[in-house]
Specification:
Pfam families: GBBH-like_N, TauD. With 372 residues, this protein is an alpha+beta fold. Helix content is 26%, strand content 30%. The protein has two domains: 2-90, 2-Layer Sandwich (NE0471 N-terminal domain-like), CATH 3.30.2020.30; 108-357, 4-Layer Sandwich (Double-stranded beta-helix), CATH 3.60.130. It contains nine helices and 24 strands. A hairpin with a 4-residue loop joins strand 15 (242-246) and strand 16 (251-255). Helix 7 (230-238) packs across helix 8 (284-302).
């Protein structure tokens, strides 16, 4: 049973549905009216100019019947909404699972299956969204072996280093990634705008001594910092250092907080790159607070409480959410053999789009009794 209540001079609508309260404003409902006068039936894009609607727009009548909400607005417009659609608007996205080392997941996918089957590809993308990473097995050990799966999602994000690039020790390395030293937990390329959304790290050979990969959930680190040191958390959401990468042919610079919040005040992106960070000359007290807060965050992301250790085998690939996870590696020695990785980037918008489209497509097929 759904009960309808209008309030505040009929400019708000409250739906009490199965014990849950849902509140909507008249203007929000009016500009989202699903009728053909308000929205183009093919594109779904708005035909009216929402900014021209009267600010005192009210709901004259509101009735619920057969799962539909029928509204009559003070501008004379009538509209009918499906209740399920309205409630879906207020539903949050599929939840993320934050984890520490003790409770770390081990999400897996098979390359060939995800390449051929939409359900398997969706499962891989849902797992990536939920956990922040997924390990894909059975990837061809060709130089561009990951490319066919990227093409199912892509496009590949090209940078000044090209498309899919080597990650191995070289002489006269242009970046510390291309040496044998260990790498502290970090997020990639915070000096770019936009920052690459997902890292695809494909193992061709990993016989060197050491070179284990590490992962830490930056959103879990942010949560723990907020609980244990609220002042440090507030500082890292407030101060915006810059990040810079330069070589003979490239100059890249951007800025942003180490913990970036969304409109609801929840972490939506973490940045950490000791190699490229450049803190501005802030007032002394602010700098002291920032350095203490950064140290507290660093101790979390490098501590064993949050650090997951793994070593990729040839033919395995690690896909990492670069807005959420921090990754690193232990030092390695080539006396034991070769360590050769290939790395590419795929942007966040195309990955999210693919996941949403597959979800809608498969849900529609299931509802119609069609094979997925």
């Amino acid at each position: 049973m759904t009960h309808v209540i209008t309030q505040a001079n009929r400019r708000r609508l409250v739906l009490d549905h199965q014990g849950q309260r849902h509140e909507f404003t008249a203007l929000w409902l009016r500009e989202r009216s699903p009728d053909d006068e308000t929205r183009d039936p093919y594109t779904g894009q708005r035909l009216i100019e929402a900014a021209e609607l009267p600010l005192d727009l009210a709901i004259e009548t509101a009735k619920v019947a057969d799962g539909q909400l029928n509204l009559h607005f003070s501008d004379g417009h009538h509209s009918t909404f499906g209740l399920a659609t309205l409630f879906d608007e207020q539903a949050s996205e599929s939840p993320r699972r934050l984890w520490d080392a003790a409770g770390a997941p081990h999400p897996e996918a098979d390359f060939a299956t995800a390449l051929e089957d939409d359900s398997a590809l969706l499962a891989m993308l849902e797992s990536l969204h939920r956990n922040g990473f997924v390990i894909v097995s059975g990837v061809p050990t060709d130089l561009d072996g990951m490319q066919p799966l990227i093409d199912r999602i892509g496009p590949l994000r090209r940078t000044n280093w090209g498309g899919i690039a080597d990650v191995k020790s070289v002489a006269n390395a242009y970046d510390l990634t291309m040496t044998q030293r260990g790498l502290e937990p970090h997020t990639d390329n915070p000096y770019r705008d936009p920052i690459p959304g997902y890292i695809w790290l494909h193992c061709l050979a990993n016989a060197a001594e050491g070179g284990d990969s590490t992962l830490a959930d930056g959103f879990m680190a942010a949560r723990l910092l907020r609980e244990r040191d609220p002042d440090a958390y507030a500082c890292l959401t407030r101060v915006t250092p810059s990040f810079r990468y330069c070589d003979a042919d490239t100059y890249l610079e951007s800025e942003g907080s180490l913990i970036e919040l969304d409109s609801r005040g929840e972490p939506v992106r973490v940045r950490y790159s000791n190699r490229t960070e450049r803190v501005p000359a802030l007032p002394a007290e602010e700098l002291e607070a920032y350095y203490a807060a950064r140290k507290a965050f660093y101790q979390l992301i490098t501590g064993e409480e949050l650090t997951l250790h793994l070593k990729l085998d040839p033919g395995q690939m690690l896909i990492i959410d670069n807005y959420r996870l921090l990754h690193g590696r232990s030092a390695f020695h080539l006396a034991g053999g070769v360590r050769h990785m290939r790395q590419g980037y795929v942007d966040r918008d195309t990955t999210a789009s693919r996941r949403c489209v597959l979800h809608q497509r498969l849900a529609t097929a299931q509802a119609q009794g069609e094979p997925a």
